Every structure is written in C-alpha cells, then in structure tokens.
Amino acid sequence: MKKKKILIVNCYIDEFRIPVQRKTKFPQSMTSAFLAGIFSPDRCDIRLYDEVFSGPLEDEQLLSFPDMLVLTGLNSAFDRMLHITAYARTKNKDVIVVAGGPIIRVLHHYSTHFFDYCCTGDIEQMAEVIEDAFDNTYVSENFLEKGWTIPRYDLAYWMTTVGYVESSRNCCYSCDFCSLTGEKTKYEEYPIEYLKEQFIALGKRKKDIIFLDNNFGGTNRQFLLDRFELLGELKERGYLKRWCAITTNDFFLEDENLELARQSGCANLFSGVESFDKTALINFKKYHNVRIPQVEVIQKCLDAGISFYYGLIFDASTRPIAEFKEELDFIVNNPEIPLPCFLTLAIPLLGTPSFYQCLNENRFLPHIKLRDLDGTTLALKPLDPMNETIRFIKEIQNLSGYRRKIFHHSLKFFNRYKNRLSWYPMAVAMLNAPLICAPKLTTARSEFVRYFQKGYKKHTRSFVGSTEPLDAVYSPAFRVDSRYEHYFNPTMLTDAHGNLSEKLYMDLYQN
Ligand code: SF4
Predict the structure, then answer these.
(1) What pLDDT score does 205 carry?
(2) 3-state secondary structure 355-392
(3) Which terminus of the chain has a lower count of CB atoms within 10 Å, N or C?
(4) Strand (E) positions, 174-214?
C-alpha cells in the first residue's frame, strides 16, 4: 500500500532578521522528532525540516512532497507557518496542513482561517489528527500501545553533537511572562520507563545529553531520586557521559541534589536567573528566585563541580537603563559568578499575565508585528528616551562597551574555579563570553565564514518593532498561488495606536 508522505517542519524566524543557519544554537527543538514518533514508520514516509539549523525552507521539491504538512514553532514563528503553508498549498492543493504549539493554542480562532487542523492540546493530539485525516493504522503501534512517543532520533539530522530526552513537561511555578503560565498548564511527570526507552532509542552514540524538561527538579523528590538512579545506571552502561538540564532555584535548596546530580553525570545546569534585582524578580512574579540569594545558588553549583548557565531579561518599559547597566557591571566585576549566556529584551508573550498587563497599561508600541516578539526588538514603550534605549539595545547585542571587562572577568573566573570545574563544564562556562559578545558568529558557522569573506555587509536594524523593515522571508521565494499571497503579510499585533489588532480580538480580548 502507498505510504502517506509526511513533512514536519520546525518553523523559525531569526532574531538577526537575516536568513541564516544556526547550526550551533542550543538547545535545539525536538518537537518535530517527538511528533514524528507518533506516525507509523511502516505506513508513512516521514521527513523533518528544522529551520533553525537549515535556514528558511524554500526547497520546492520538498515543499511538493507531503500529503500532510505538520508545523510547529515558537510565538514569533507564526508567520513562517503561514509562508510554508502557502508554498505547500501552491504545490499541492490537497495537502493537509496541521499546526500546533503555544502560538496556535493562544491564537486558535485566528489560526483556523489558515490551517486544516489547529491543535490546542499537547503533542499526543497528533494521534487524533492522524486518525481523523487518515485512520489509526497510520499511528505508530508503540504509541497506540503505550500512549507515549519515542522521538525519531534517526530523522533529527540537526542532532549532530548532543542527544535530547525529556522526563517531564511544564512547570510548578507561574512566572508572569512565561507561556506556560499563560496556557495554565500543569506540571506532569513521565513514567521512568518512558525516559529509559528514550535513552535506549538514542543508543550509545550521543554521550552528552540535554534534558528538554521545563523544570527538571520538579516537585516530587522521589521522582528526582529515581531519575538520578536511572542516570547513574545508564552512565555505567555507556548510554551517556554527561547531562545537562533546566531547573528552578528550589533544586539548589537541598545540598544533596547537587552531589547526586554530579555523581550521575550532570555537567551543566541552567536556571532562569532573569535578574539580580529583587524588585525586578517580584515584578516577574518569580518569587522562588528570591528565597535564597542567587549568587549563593550559583556559587554552590559551581563549587559542586557543575557549570551554571543563566540568562538576563531587560524590560525597558518598567526598568531604567541605568539600573540594568548597574546589573551588568555587578556581573562583569564579579568572578564568583559566570557571565550570562544570553541577554534578551522582555517578550510579552501572547496570553501571559504580563502580555495583558502591557495591553491594559497601553505599553505596546504602535504597528508591532507578531514577528517582533523575538527578544531583540523593542515592542514596548521604554521608560528612557527612545534614542537612548535604541543605543542601549544595540549595545547589548554584542556588549561592545563591556568587552575588556568581560575578558578580565573570564580570566578571573577561570582562576577562581579551575580546581572545582573539570575541563568540560569549564569550557562550557568560558563559551559564554563569545556567546554574548558575538552571538551571530558563535551560533551560525556560515556567518562566521561570511564575516571573513570580502564583501561581508553588516545588516542594519532599527531595533524598534514599529520601524523594522520586514525580513527577506516575507517575499515569496517562488511564485505562490494568488489565493495565498496574503499569507506573506505580517500578522499585526498592534494597530496605529498600540492597541490590540482587530484580527486578534477573538483570541486575545479580555474584559
Ligand atoms: S520557573 Fe521557568 S518554566 Fe517555570 S513558570 Fe517560571 S519561567 Fe516558566
């Protein structure tokens, strides 16, 4: 029998606003590989495409391939979902288009104008879609039997250096800016057997493992201990050498956790510090980060031989630049803590409490596109004058004014922790300097090569959503059917007055 042809795309629109392949941007998304595991491998011919790793999907042959196109991606990637739908429908008018992910959940009504299936549930909903569009013989037998999906690691071509597994989903906290809070999700633990099966499917090829959990520490101590035990056992059997996970501050309250984590192979932990300013944390409703001083947490982790990653958020609409500069000075002058691995502008993600607060307080700038919610583009009215804010946003893209201090910080940090951290966690910690000083060159090899080639042109930006020109991907790469030309118009979030765009009223209007 003829197999159904399935194309699953992780859609992405780059914050650098150029078509670029981010081959060394971590962690990578594995949603498409998890989704692929729900399709029957015997009855479906499945292909995956990751726009982060491979750049914008414009391959006409691949776009002509699917009977079913499955799209996933972050909030800012919604317009890419539309572009790819237009391409695929131009090539095959009968293609079934399925879209899912946080942005489809929050813009469900609006999405139904464009896609055949708009999934509001978790990835397991894919099985219902397959059954409805084809029949349940196209669903993987393993999924039907156990109710969980084993990712198709064999198709995840972007997974070149590290492997990925997941042991839980969602989080037990409710930070104001987090999409999980907006979606009112509940923290869920997976059966330990499921985690084990993921490792077995991954095989012994990948020695460095990244957990995709939103909060690895979770709330159930026994579940945490069970996972440490399993990881220790898998390490002995050669399924992993090192692992890394995202966890919340409360993980560090129990001294034993760090020791057990290290023994089972933990090399790096990421925790959402967001800010060293207590008031900023309280404004984010990130109360768990103020229970113990963050610097203490970081030192504890590093002294236990585990590298500590974190990012910083700057909300230009509630905090003055001077305050954020003080915070940066505090970090670069303190070798007890590592440098952050990213700095981002606050993103008022659709449907979150912070999104509604910005809307109610009329803090959005006019003519903001959904695409502008990428962390490098100003979408909110700043407290400081606009020209100063733009200058500062430009500066934090590569910390041009801090480079000397960053260099000295790295040397001092190395000396402080050289006897505590082994080479791998130390190397990971030292990578933060190039990551924040030259993010484009560190995460996109092609840009690195281009940089040293003659004719490399700097891409100029305004950094303000209202005035940023559209990315090249908004011009169709080939002729699309006139019925889908409007799919290339940007989805507007705000109107000329900074109010919610009328098209999104049904999904986002709140009294
Ligand atoms: S702790 Fe992290 S994952 Fe949990 S709600 Fe806050 S931001 Fe989201």
Answers:
(1) 84
(2) HHHHHHCCCECCCCEHHHCCCCCECECCCCCHHHHHHH
(3) C
(4) 188-189, 208-211
The pair of structure tokens assigned to 420 is 């505590």
Nearest CA to ligand 1 atom 2: 272
Instruction: Count Cβ neighbours within 10 Å for each residue of 146-171 and write b for 16 or more, e otherwise.
Output: eebbbbbbebbebbeebbbbbbbbbb
Cis peptide bond N-terminal to 191, omega within 30: no
Q: Go through the domains of the chain in sequence order and give each one's CATH number.
A: 4-146 (3.40.50.280), 310-444+462-511 (no CATH)
Does the CB atom of residue 273 touch ligand 1 within 6 A?
Answer: no
Ligand 1 atom closest to the Cα of residue 286 is 6
Q: What is the pLDDT of residue 455?
A: 61
Q: Indicate if ligand 1 lies below 6 Å from the C-beta of 173.
A: yes
3-class secondary structure, 113: coil
CB distance 215 to 168 below 8 Å: yes
Write down the pLDDT at residue 460.
83
| β-strand pairing of 188-189 with 168-169 | antiparallel
CA dihedral 427→431→433→436, nearest 10 degrees, is -160
| C-alpha–C-alpha distance, residues 81 and 405, integer Å | 42
* Nearest atom in ligand 1 to 173's CA: 5
Whole-number pLDDT of residue 291: 86
Dihedral of the alpha carbons of 5, 10, 16, 21, in degrees to the nearest 10: -60
Q: Please tell me if the CB atom of residue 171 comes closer than 6 angstroms to any atom of ligand 1.
A: yes
Residue 56's contacts (CB-CB under 8 Å, 6 or more residues apart) are: 19, 80, 473, 477
Q: Which atom of ligand 1 is nearest to the CA of 288?
A: 1
Q: Under a CB-based contact definition with an 8 Å cutoff, are residues 319 and 383 in contact?
A: yes
Strands 188-189 and 208-211 come out as unpaired
Tokens of 174: 């409710």
Compute the chain's Rg from CA coordinates.
23
Distance, in Å, from the CA atom of 328 to the CA atom of 331, rounded to the nearest integer, reads 5
Mean pLDDT by 10 residues, the chain (511 residues): 94 93 94 98 98 97 98 96 98 98 96 98 97 98 97 97 97 95 95 98 93 96 97 97 95 94 97 93 90 93 97 96 96 97 96 96 97 97 98 94 95 97 96 92 76 67 95 96 98 97 91 51
Beta-bridge partners for 265? none
The residues facing 52 across adjacent strands are: none
What is the reported pLDDT for 351? 95
Residue nearest to atom 8 of ligand 1 (CA): 178
CA nearest neighbour of 290 among 302, 272, 304, 303: 272
Q: How many residues does the chain have?
A: 511
Separation of alpha carbons 377 and 134, rounded Å:
42
